[in-house]
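It is worth pausing here to work through a concrete case rather than discussing structure prediction in the abstract. The textbook approach is simple: state the sequence, then state the predicted structure, then interpret. We follow exactly that order.
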Amino acid sequence: MPEPIEVRKVPIKTVSDASGLDELITSGVMEAGRVIAIIGKTEGNGGVNDYTRILADTAFRDVLRKHGVDEEQVKGVPIVWSGGTDGVISPHATIFATIPADEAEQTDEPRLTAGFAMSEKLLPEEIGYTPMIEKVA
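Step two, the predicted structure:
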């Protein structure tokens, strides 16, 4: 049976701010080694010249490293960023982490489950072409 999942949303105060994740780990809400995915919105423009996604990715992975997660596991955590927070959207990250089953609130209500897979590494010349489709499939 899959482990229960804790989901928390944290604000991103600057383009390289991962203090929300750090606080969740430091306060014991989540264990760094149990983080299974992060998705979020960065404050960049969302265009090809938007480096905020790279800065955010680095910041969040560095927090996992700081809390003792080994490099292979850090590299394996899927982190997906969408750039551009024009209008009413504010920069934020949603963090998914497993928790031990005995710590989860018991209920008969349906719950979230998560699964993911990683494709082979995509080469720049494959993006938008058949090799990319084959690798991702």
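Step three, interpretation. The longest strand covers residues 35-42. The chain has a mean pLDDT of 91.
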